[in-house]
């Protein structure tokens, strides 16, 4: 029996409608992916915020277009489901990536509430796009080359204490941070509070870049410092990038070093490893080296906790695990 017959006999419903969650990137046609454009071309119905619908104007001739305002995310998802149930292919379009503060989450919430499962007859495809943090970073240099995170300052759906706690944690732990939704006509104090929290942990001279309307006609870049950031021109279409303690600005570029200076000396174009370090191996202060050092220090977990700003119970547990648990330093080279 052929697979097709088996399929027909089990009466599995053929996929009928389709919902495509399409990230358009920052807002320039050149930065849209091939799949994003193809998904829009393939769709019968396009649903999205007016500005983004305009970006794909050349692809939507003859299609049903449902323009929605910013605040109607759930309505957009409900409408998409409705059309898909009728067997239509629907493209829900978002700026950047649809999964980053975009339509992907609310759409799945609506789908699951309606009893949808991945096996049901409506197919869902998520088409990734370059998010604001990627595109804004590309415009200012290389600010995200080390650990970073994104925080939205929008308190429309998230309580302020939750946002403040996250700001505090990442400021303390020296992440590079991309602030989404930093300010709007009505939300002007959030960015000041973010600055206040950051200044508790970070140097006032920490570099900050503010990118407005990346890859759009009104694009604007501004470099400033943590101390002065709240005075800058920030709006709904800005992303604020705050550096970590190693980030610097040089020649009009914001750069976060990857950490090569911890391992190599570079002089006159020649590269040599620093004493005690080996190419392709963890740093001497990497996990195994560090464990050895704290073990040999003879210090208590409490003392070490203060020294390394780590929880005492973690240090105690790591010490208690003993050297036999050290993962034999694999010879694998790190990229
Ligand atoms: N899904 C989008 C984010 C939507 S939230 C993405 O992945 O990029 C809206 C926020 O995104 C804005 O307040 C701003 O902080 C940021 N943003 C979106 N497009 C931008 C652009 N072209 N330039 C700068 N920031 C942008």
TrEMBL record:
Recorded superkingdom: Bacteria
Pathway: Cofactor biosynthesis; adenosylcobalamin biosynthesis
Signal peptide segment: none
Any GO BP: methylation
Alphabetically ordered keywords of this record: Cobalamin biosynthesis, Methyltransferase, S-adenosyl-L-methionine, Transferase
Stretches assigned to the Tetrapyrrole methylase domain: 18-229
Gene3D superfamilies associated with the record: Cobalt-precorrin-4 Transmethylase, Domain 1 (3.40.1010.10), Methyltransferase, Cobalt-precorrin-4 Transmethylase, Domain 2 (3.30.950.10)
Protein name: Precorrin-3B C(17)-methyltransferase
Organism: Oryzomicrobium terrae
